[in-house]
């Protein structure tokens, strides 16, 4: 008995209180998925400074499929890039708030053009990442009354120095295919064939060389572009006729769910800018 009296009292382990995870805002989800924010696969500050310096000196490699911008200075290029992306010479980042604001502006412009029954064309050079996003744009335009370009396969063509390739429309989005798989494309060959193959659109929604070739052809463009291809942001700031939605374009398709939700909310008349939502992805993105 004396031994039991001298024992210390038994301690009952505390039961941890479960806390529900707080939903993330669209901005936070874009940064978590590395579609916006810092890091990721985009150029660092030094590389971005070099891209814009070369652009100011009319170096073709920095311009993609765009023509040189006469009289462009590095300061003017930086002004356009900062306004579009939020990046500075010290921080090569993409501001997620700018991404969502540009998405809303792009969606509003698509609805405006579509309401007039105008022709609209959509294309992607990176189908593994951006196909579902572009399909969301096409769905928005179609629902608003646009004449969406959606034709049979066109080809064979040569793209990226390889043949045969074809242009194929998937959900009204033009992509490059070898007949078995969807292919990415980095040069302007497929984009020029694309504009030859389709009736001239009033508005193009695209990325990469498709967006650049369309803009160079005098067509209004909504372009999805990262800091690796800042040329359209600079060209649009100088000459208008374009809107850049700033985002990295090489992320997994599911990473762009916040963009697709913003597009869908625009179609339904809602605004999801600051609404927190459950994340649709995990750490694997």
CATH fold type = Rossmann fold
Strand content: 15-25%
Question: What kind of sheet is the major sheet?
Answer: 9 strands, mixed
CATH class identity: Alpha Beta
Counted by DSSP, the helix tally is 11
Share of residues in helices: 40-55%
| Protein structure class | alpha/beta
Element-by-element helix/strand order: HHHHHHEHEEEEEHEHEHEH
Envelope shape: globular
Distance between the termini: 62 Å
Structure description:
This protein is of the alpha/beta class and 285 residues long. It has one domain: Rossmann fold. Strands 1, 2, 3, 4, 5, 6, 7, 8 and 9 form a nine-stranded mixed β-sheet that branches. Helix 7 links the parallel strand 1 and strand 2. It starts with a helix and ends in a 17-residue tail after the last helix.
């Amino acid at each position: 008995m004396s031994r039991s009296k001298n024992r210390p009292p038994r301690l009952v382990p505390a039961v941890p209180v479960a806390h529900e995870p707080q939903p993330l805002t669209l901005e936070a989800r874009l940064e978590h998925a590395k579609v916006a924010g810092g890091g990721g696969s985009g150029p660092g500050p030094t590389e971005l400074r070099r891209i814009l310096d070369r652009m100011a000196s009319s170096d073709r490699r920095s311009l993609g499929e765009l023509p040189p911008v006469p009289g462009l200075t590095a300061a003017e290029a930086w002004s356009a890039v900062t306004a579009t992306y939020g990046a500075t010479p010290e921080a090569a980042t993409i501001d997620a708030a700018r991404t969502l604001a540009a998405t809303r502006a792009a969606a509003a412009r698509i609805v405006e053009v579509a309401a007039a029954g105008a022709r609209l064309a959509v294309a992607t050079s990176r189908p593994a990442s951006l196909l579902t996003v572009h399909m969301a744009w096409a769905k928005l335009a179609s629902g608003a009354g646009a004449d969406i370009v959606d034709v049979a396969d066109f080809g064979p063509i040569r793209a990226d120095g390889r043949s045969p390739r074809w242009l194929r429309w998937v959900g009204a989005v033009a992509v490059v295919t070898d007949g078995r798989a969807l292919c990415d494309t980095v040069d302007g060959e497929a984009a020029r064939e694309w504009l030859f193959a389709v009736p001239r659109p009033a508005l193009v929604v695209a990325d990469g060389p498709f967006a650049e070739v369309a803009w160079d052809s005098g067509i209004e463009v909504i372009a999805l572009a990262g800091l690796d291809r800042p040329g359209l942001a600079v060209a649009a700031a100088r000459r208008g006729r374009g809107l850049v939605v700033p985002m990295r374009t090489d992320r997994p398709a599911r990473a762009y769910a916040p963009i697709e939700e913003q597009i869908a909310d625009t179609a339904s008349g809602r605004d999801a800018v600051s609404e927190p939502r459950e994340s649709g992805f995990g750490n694997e993105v």
